[in-house]
Structure to design on (332 residues):
């Protein structure tokens, strides 16, 4: 009997100590979250300086700073369609001081195409700060008026048509590969590290076609330097109402929209995630340079996704785009 009492006492004390530990660590985490942030926050940006995703990230960071009380420091880490930046943040300490600003393709497309050190499950989605419908453009003096014109040129002279795209796994990259596969033509897809470098390469005559973000393309179109061939989303893009989609041009399966999002490493305390989301949402709503520029460049989300809704959208897109990549034999 005494032995049984000792066993029960041991079990009781073990459970009691476990509860005290859990409650204690929870209190510590809660206090830590209340104090957060106590120093500047590093925001790793997956796209090149000057890209629409980069501009939007820097502006939303500035807009959110007054509501956080600390600076958000933008740091560009370009490469692999955002994979380099995402890999760094996935391994970062989940304390809210290293966050990732990227395009959704980095998390929903690229992992289906390459063997990476991260997956969608390694992140907690926080906030959508922009959206884009990518567009294929050519120089203003190009003979190509439609995507079919580009395909016919590639058919007549295999290997002579180069597509410049922001990165591997981005929507323009997948769309270009799908067109080449559907049409059975030889076209080189060249990842260039962002929309800005892609436009530079196009204007310099290094690529025949560039797939870029709408905000990056519109100023060049208005200046008469480039011409839009087709948008890549499910519907025509805001600001490019006269430009038909790829669906309208005979590619019914190519409907690839993207969002600009901010995520944090898995394991980041919920209280910290909520603080970040709250500051970003207040920055989104505030009157200032972010809202002004985002609206002027057609990337301001009228009802931004965040938290669980953003996580659900990302999972759906990962499944849908994963099937597209697999069917087109673009995957790993």
């Amino acid at each position: 009997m005494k032995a049984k009492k000792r066993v029960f006492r041991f079990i009781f004390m073990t459970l009691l100590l476990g509860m005290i530990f859990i409650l204690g660590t929870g209190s510590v985490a809660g206090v830590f979250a209340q104090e957060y942030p106590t120093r500047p926050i590093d925001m790793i940006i997956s796209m090149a300086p000057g890209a629409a995703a980069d501009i939007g990230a820097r502006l939303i960071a500035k807009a959110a700073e007054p509501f956080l009380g600390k600076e958000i420091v933008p740091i560009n880490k370009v490469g692999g369609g955002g994979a380099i930046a995402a890999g760094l943040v996935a391994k970062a300490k989940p304390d809210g001081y290293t966050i990732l600003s990227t395009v959704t393709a980095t998390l929903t497309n690229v992992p289906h195409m390459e063997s990476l050190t991260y997956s969608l499950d390694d992140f907690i989605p926080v906030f959508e700060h922009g959206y884009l419908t990518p567009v294929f453009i050519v120089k203003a003096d190009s003979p190509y008026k439609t995507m079919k014109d580009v395909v016919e040129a590639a058919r007549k002279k295999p290997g002579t048509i180069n597509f410049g795209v922001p990165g591997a796994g981005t929507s323009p990259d997948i769309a270009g590969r799908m067109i080449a596969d559907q049409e059975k033509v030889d076209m080189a897809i060249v990842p260039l590290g962002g929309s800005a470098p892609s436009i530079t390469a196009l204007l310099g005559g290094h690529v025949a076609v560039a797939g870029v973000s709408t905000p990056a393309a519109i100023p060049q179109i208005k200046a008469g330097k480039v011409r839009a061939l087709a948008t890549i989303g499910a519907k025509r893009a805001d600001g490019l109402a006269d430009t038909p989609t790829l669906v309208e041009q005979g590619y019914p399966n190519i409907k690839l929209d993207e969002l600009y999002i901010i995520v944090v490493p898995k394991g980041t305390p919920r209280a910290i995630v909520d603080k970040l989301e709250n500051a970003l949402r207040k920055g989104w709503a505030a009157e200032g340079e972010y809202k002004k520029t985002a609206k002027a460049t057609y990337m301001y989300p009228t009802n931004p996704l965040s938290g669980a809704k953003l996580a659900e959208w990302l999972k759906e897109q990962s499944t849908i785009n994963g099937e597209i990549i697999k069917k087109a034999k673009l995957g790993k």
Q: What stands out?
A: The domain at 36-132+258-327 is CATH 3.40.190.150 (D-Maltodextrin-Binding Protein; domain 2). The chain has two domains: 36-132+258-327, 135-231.
